[in-house]
């Protein structure tokens, strides 16, 4: 089973309202990526992962994803640069920043750069799910 199949709800026989919603998770910490991807998959989301900024940007601009979860501190290209690249190609794609940065200036920069939401790590899965549902419902 591939990494992508492992996080697909249909592979586990799940049926949810969120089925068919494909989320790109750009996170360089494999442990965090696994936890977030599994939490989302349990609730019916299909999750595709990338570990670097350049890989995340390539997937966000070329793959059929409905939402991006984007870390800020990434190898190769930081989350702010990835966000700017996404906005050039897919200006309406919902992007949630997931970061350990708690400072107000980072949050302001992300939101001013086009992020739809900003969640700090550690976060509660229920908060992430509520934000994801709200943003994917709009699209």
Question: Your description of this structure?
Answer:
This protein is α/β, with parallel strands linked by helices. The chain has a single domain, classed as Response regulator (Rossmann fold, 3-Layer(aba) Sandwich), CATH 3.40.50.2300. It has helices at 3-6, 30-42, 53-62, 79-89, 104-112, 125-138, and strands at residues 22-26, 46-50, 67-70, 95-99, 117-120. The longest helix is centred in the C-terminal third of the chain and has 14 residues, at 125-138. The chain is globular, with a radius of gyration of 14 Å.
Gyration radius, rounded = 14 Å
Provide the structure class: alpha/beta
Strand order of the largest sheet: 2-1-3-4-5
| SSE run | HEHEHEHEHEH
Percent helix range = 40-55%
Average pLDDT works out at 88
Low-confidence stretches: 1-16
CATH architecture: 3-Layer(aba) Sandwich
For the secondary structure, the number of strands is 5
Q: Key terms for this structure?
A:
139 residues; alpha/beta; Rossmann fold; five-stranded parallel sheet; 6 helices; 5 strands; disordered N terminus
